[in-house]
Amino acid sequence: MPEFKALVDGYRRFRLGSYREQRERYDQLSQGQAPKIMIVACSDSRVDPARVFDAAPGQMFVLRNIANLVPPLSAIQGQSSVAAALEYAVTGIAVHHIVVFGHARCGGIQAALAGDFDNPVAGRHVHAWMEFIAPARDAVRAACALSPDVDAQRALEQAGVRLSLDNLRTYPFVKEAEDAGKIMLHGVIFDIGDGALKVLDKATGQFRQVPVEL
Ligand SMILES: [Zn+2]
Q1: Residue 196: its pLDDT value, please?
Q2: What is the per-residue DSSP string for 26-77?
Q3: Residues 179 and 156 in one domain
């Protein structure tokens, strides 16, 4: 199993390469962090937000979980990594933006649609987690039943991002910061297949591709 060795080799390249090149930045960061952006991304290994946004160390406060979901406050019981990260980002760091970063070909979304984890014994934890998206999944399934042209995977990826944005506003500290103009919420979807990034247009409610001159 050579994978861990490859990881440590990667660390050596980092230590001798970009860590050295950005020495000043790391010196500064060792005093503390003040990122202005929080990202809620999927745990999927293919969609590292720091790479997609070409971000510098210290630029983004990142929370990752299966299918980049934010559960509503009412569904959270006791300890929650999502609630803790949100609270710290908003009330501690005072980020200016929260970005829900969805992605195409999401395995969590695919499994939710296919019902892969509907057997709570086989996939107990994933099943319970993906239940947060059940209302959106049911709506997409119903739309697909009416119109077979609907791309269910894409529709649920988009609906999942919209749902998480709505759920963000169930946390009073997020809602208050947004109402006070201190924070902006954004939804985006990235496709590793063609490199396209789509941003949710608040005016139209549609996702629009970011133009890039290639
Ligand atoms: Zn995913």
Answers
A1: 98
A2: HHHHTT----SEEEEEE--TT--HHHHTTPPTTSEEEEEEGGG----GGG--
A3: yes
